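Reviewer comment 2.1 asked that we show a complete input and output for one of the modelled complexes. We chose the zinc ion case, as it is the one discussed in the main text.
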Amino acid sequence: MSGTPTGDRLVLLGSKGGPAIRPGGPWPSSSLLEIGGRKIVVDCGLGVTRGLTDAGMNLKALDLVFITHLHSDHVLELGPLIHTAWTAGLSSPVAVLGPPGTGDTWRHFVRSLEFDIDIRIADEGRPDIRSLVRVEEFGEGMIFEQGGLKVFALRVDHPPVTDCFALRFEQGGRSVVFSSDTAYFPPLADFARNADILVHEAMLEQGIERLVAKTGNGARLREHLLASHSFAGEAGRIAADAGVRELVLNHLIPADDPEIGEADWIVAGRKTWAGALTIACDGLVVALADGKSPGGEIA
Ligand SMILES: [Zn+2]
Ligand SMILES: [Zn+2]
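Response of the prediction step:
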């Protein structure tokens, strides 16, 4: 479970599903994937900046960010992350890859911060943050290739959002797949075939009713959850069909119900999945297994 500081690793920075936060509870979706020497940010829910620094990342090294879809629990802190990195001394290019609309999200952010950005350029001599960031909007297929790192996207089932993508990262014979937000979606098993780690979103049946009661817009929320998200047992079925090495249940719904603990998630996942099973929590480090590089290639 715990990785060495220099090894390839996945850090679940924010592990809850949905944008609301509550006292003592976990934070929305963001992850840090360190693979083949690259530090890759996957999703930028609230708390991503704090999570990255807690994970030991120097924000000046930020250069590659992927957004799976534009729900706020995945993108709210995209702008603030890059802006904060910029105030911490970032002066090299940052690539942001996301679904259609990501460019507008970024442009509207820098527009809203125009006063601060312009004054820091004039007063502190910083480079123009607007020219440091390149946003690329993607669809399905191979969306990124650089230095042995390949990234693939698959449209998943997250109504009413149509541009929502699972992501597969491959480097040096290792692979990590993120389901993004999705209802049970069998094609994901092919997409995640033989991955070292599948990070799959998960709901727990017995917690949904209490969550719906707490949030206050009952029927509509329940409807959205059931149509757009997966139960833990469904995530386990995808992992089993894909033959992955390890399943990480993430984007947990509910995530801050005192009556639900790790043991409940494990019981639910075990109904369909017998392999390595990890339940995400904020800051959890998952090491990537060694020795899988084909042909001894060092990537
Ligand atoms: Zn979400
Ligand atoms: Zn979503």
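Residues 17, 29, 71, 73-74, 181, 251 surround zinc ion (ligand 1) (CB under 6 Å). We note this here for comparison with the apo prediction described in Section 3.2.
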